[in-house]
Amino acid sequence: MKIESRELDGAVVVALVGEVDLQHSPTVRKHLMDLMFERRPVVVDMGLVDYIDSSGIASLVEAYQAARKNGTRFILAAVSQPAMRVLQLARLDKVFALADTVEAGLTA
Predict the structure, then answer these.
(1) Who has the most CB within 10 Å: 31, 84, 102, 108?
(2) H-helix segments, 54-96
(3) Residue ranges of the domains in the chain?
């Protein structure tokens, strides 16, 4: 699991790479929650997520809820097929703001 962040057009783009599972989800959660204090839009690039479990989904949901609470945009972009299947099973594809690309997420 690897997390890369960069600033782009006033937003923070967080790229998740690899498996977002019980071992790595606390790190993802902390990283995303720390960004919520900055009150900047966050685009999570999930194009290279090979696997995500319920703990990883919970980390995304918690960050999404924090973003809603503080009026910040939180967008999942370029969601990989394995991750999208999990989101669809949990019906969270209807909850999260989704973008086909990071660039589209920045303008959403």
Answers:
(1) 102
(2) 54-70, 81-89
(3) 2-107
**Token duo for residue 2:** 């690897």
Pairing type for strands 2-8 and 74-77 reads: unpaired
Contacts of 82 (CB under 8 A, 6+ apart): 49, 50, 51, 52
Alpha carbons 90 and 7: distance in angstroms, whole number: 30
Helices (H), the chain: 25-36, 54-70, 81-89, 102-107
What is the overall mean pLDDT for the chain? 96
pLDDT digits 0-9 by tens, 10-47: 999 999 999 999 999 999 999 999 999 899 999 999 99
pLDDT at residue 108, as a whole number: 80
User: CATH number of the domain at 2-107, please?
Assistant: 3.30.750.24
* Residues with Cβ within 8 Å of residue 4, at least 6 apart in sequence: 14, 15, 17
Q: Quick one: residue 9, left, alpha or beta (phi over 0 = left, psi -120 to 50 = alpha)? A: left
- Cα–Cα distance between 77 and 57 in angstroms, integer? 14
